[in-house]
Design a protein that fits this description.
Largest sheet: 4 strands, antiparallel
Shape: elongated
Radius of gyration: 24 Å
Order of helices and strands: EHEEHEEEHHHHHHHH
Number of helices: 10
Length: 265
């Protein structure tokens, strides 16, 4: 980050701006699933009037390096004080399309970051409530779906900017990052950075991700408190029912619950 010798008036104006600004509404639909994020147009729209009222303005300029592209973002105050930061993202392909993709991602995140603009989270109030057992179960199922969808999206990222975008959006989503998602991110990053990777190694990474999903379902099936919970987990659309370990866990827990029920009679 760079800045003018003094930023006291800019800091005061930025404080006024942040007190006035409302969250950027999440309107842009992610093509891989139903989560939303605030696009650049929405971020600029919600900042326009508070910036003017605070005597602030923002300029962004494309920059590039060796196989990288992004923007320099400058926040200026009417007093002449300023701060700036650069954001460079790796380009999988050094062509207009690859560089344009990197610049687009960098513009949105840099603009929102330098101004401290939040994104409105419609689930914020719900998240503060004490969850019921039914909600805990629903959240657990949703977490599995969240993990599977993000792993698929990240594993199919077309280039480094797309991968960075998915990673940031996932990090800011309701359920955030977890071990399986981070493993998928690291694997895809390595694939994009090394076009000569052997197919067998890629298959090994995918197998690792699948193994983690299997392990999660085996654990939940083995801990099912009753027949209904067992059936709900087994019928989960994401449950890999063709897997031997998953089937064994289901049959074993089913037998245990049947024996327990007979003993209660």
């Amino acid at each position: 980050m760079k800045k003018s010798k003094k930023i006291d008036q800019l800091a005061k104006a930025l404080n006024q701006f942040q007190a006035e600004i409302s969250g950027a509404k999440k309107k842009e639909e992610n093509p891989y699933f139903h989560s939303k994020y605030a696009n650049l147009e929405e971020v600029i729209r919600c900042a326009k009037e508070p910036l003017m009222n605070s005597g602030l303005s923002v300029s962004q300029f494309p920059i590039s390096g060796e196989r990288t592209a992004g923007v320099e973002t400058i926040l200026m105050h009417e007093s002449g004080q300023w701060i700036s930061c650069e954001c460079l993202l790796a380009c999988a392909k050094v062509d207009p399309q690859g560089m344009g993709s990197a610049i687009s991602y960098a513009r949105r995140y840099s603009y929102q970051s330098i101004l401290g603009i939040p994104s409105e989270d419609d689930d914020a109030n719900e998240a503060s409530k004490e969850p019921s057992p039914a909600q805990i179960k629903a959240d657990d199922t949703a977490l599995k779906k969240h993990t599977a969808e993000w792993v698929m999206a990240i594993s199919q990222a077309a280039d480094m900017p797309a991968l960075q975008g998915f990673y940031t959006d996932c990090k800011n989503s309701k359920y955030g990052l977890n071990k399986a998602i981070l493993a998928a991110k690291d694997a895809r990053k390595e694939q994009l950075g090394n076009s000569t990777k052997e197919p067998a190694e890629s298959d090994s990474v995918m197998a690792q991700n699948e193994a983690e999903i299997v392990e999660s379902f085996v654990d939940e099936l083995s801990k099912a408190m009753n027949g209904h919970a067992l059936k709900t987990t087994w019928e989960d659309p994401l449950c890999p029912r063709g897997n031997e370990d998953v089937e064994a866990a289901y049959e074993a827990r089913k037998a245990q619950l049947e024996i327990s029920n007979e003993g209660d009679k």
